[in-house]
Amino acid sequence: MALGALVLATPAHAAEPKRNGEGATSEQQGGRNGTGIYAAAKVQYSGSVTKTGTTGNISSADVNWSPPPCWYAPYLGAKDFKKEMTKNIETAKNQPGMTGHAGAAIGEMQRHYEDDYGWTDTPGYKDYNVDKDGEGMFWAAVENPAEPDILKRKACSDLPFWVENGEAPPPQYEQAITPEMLAALAYQHMELPGTKVSLAPEAITKVNLPTWAWLDEAVFDEVQATAAINVPGFNIQATTTAKPKSLTLNPGTTDATTIPADGGCPIVDGRIGEPYARGKAKETPPCGIVYHRSSNGGTVPLKAALTWEISWTGTGQAGPIGMPDGTIEATQDITVEEIQSVNR
User: Would you say residue 51 has pLDDT above 90?
Assistant: First the structure.
C-alpha cells in the first residue's frame, strides 16, 4: 500500500523515523508519566564504547559486513502515542498543498489509528489503542545516524505498529530490533585500545639491521561492548567481545623485508612478537622488519594493523556466535639511516 510512502513524503509527517537515542535520556528506561506508559527507541550502550555515540575505531575485515542502517523498536505507550500522533497529523493536514493524494493519505492514516481502518497483515486501531495502555507499545522506525546512505537510513518506512508486552513483533517487520542487530551496533560503537607497536631500535633504525617489533601484553585483554533496549514488556541485550588475533606489518616502502615474509605476526604463547634484549642483535626476531635503504633524512610510515577476533552473546543465545574480524591500524614514522663505518 502506498499510504506509508505518501505520508513519509509530506513536509511534516507523523511517521518520521526516530534518530538513535532520540526521545529519552539514559535515565528513562520505561515506566509511567502523566499520560501513561512512556519509552523511547533508545539503544543504551555500555562497556568499551565511544562516549559521544559516534562510530568506534574498529573496522570490519569483511568489506560486505555492515551494521543495520535502520530498525524498528519500542517507541511510546498508547496514550503518549495518541498525543504525539494527533499533534503531528494536525500539523501535516495544515501544511500548504495538502490536497489530492497527499491529503487523502493523511486522512487514511488518521482512520488507521482512530477508526480501526487496516489492510492485509496490518490491522487498524480504535482510538490509538488507548484502552490497552500499559499492555503494549507502538513501535517506530529508528535511523542509524552513522549510516552514510540516506536511502538505506530511511528504508524502515512502515507506519508505527502495536506490539503486546512480551510478544514478538509481527513477522512482516523483518527490521524489528533483535539481539543480533544490537550486537552489530555494539560492534559499530566499540572503542578498542590503540595499536602502538614497540620497536627496537625505537624510531631510528639502520639499513639491513633487523628491527624487532612486539606488542605490550596489556593489549591482549579482551574488550567488551554491550547494547541493550530495556522498556516495559521488552528487554533484550547483546554483548560483543573482541580478542586480539594477529598483527600485520606494512613497512611503508618496497625497500624492506618483513619477518615473517607475509608481514603477519601471530599470537604465540599469549603475545605477538618478542621484546628485544641485549645480546640478540645478531638473532632474527619472530616479528619485525629489515629496511634495505635509508629514508634520506626523512621517514617511512610503518603501518601496524592489529586484527581482533569478534564474537557476540545475547538474549536467547546459548553460546558465542562469530562475527567478522575487526582491525585497527596505526602509523608510526621510522627514520632509516645508513650504518656509518670508520676507515683507518
Answer: no
The b/e string for 102-131 (b: 16+ C-beta within 10 A; e otherwise) is: bbebbebbbebbbeebeeeebeebeebbee
CA distance 164 to 285: 62
Say how far apart CA 142 and CA 84 lie, in whole Å: 16
Give Cα separations from 77 to 22, 36, 85, 136 (angstroms): 16, 7, 12, 7
Name the CA dihedral angle for 104, 109, 112, 115, rounded to a multiple of 10 degrees: -60
* Three-state secondary structure call for residue 100: helix
DSSP 169-186: PPTT-TTB--HHHHHHHH
Q: Are 20 and 147 in contact (CB under 8 A)?
A: no
pLDDT digits (tens, 9 = 90+) for 257-313: 999 999 899 888 878 899 999 888 788 999 999 999 999 989 999 999 999 999 999
Neighbours of 281 (CB within 10 A): 11
- CA of 315: how far to CAs of 105, 139, 235, 239, in Å? 39, 19, 9, 9
Whether residue 212 contacts residue 287, with contact meaning beta carbons closer than 8 Å, is answered with yes
R_g (Cα) of the chain, nearest Å: 28
> What's the pLDDT at 137?
93
Query: Look-up: residue for cell 530490533?
Result: 177
Res 40: pLDDT: 56
Does the pTM of the predicted model rise above 0.90?
no
What sign does the CA torsion over 244, 246, 247, 248 have? negative
Tell whether the model's pLDDT for residue 33 goes beyond 90.
Answer: no
Spatial distance between the Cα atoms of 196 and 202, rounded to a whole number of angstroms: 12
**CA-CA distance, 263 to 284, in Å (whole number)?**
14
Helices (H), the chain: 3-8, 78-93, 100-114, 150-153, 179-189
* Residue where the block lists cell 631510528: 204
Average pLDDT over all residues of the chain: 84
pLDDT digits (tens, 9 = 90+) for 57-92: 999 999 899 999 999 999 999 999 999 999 999 998
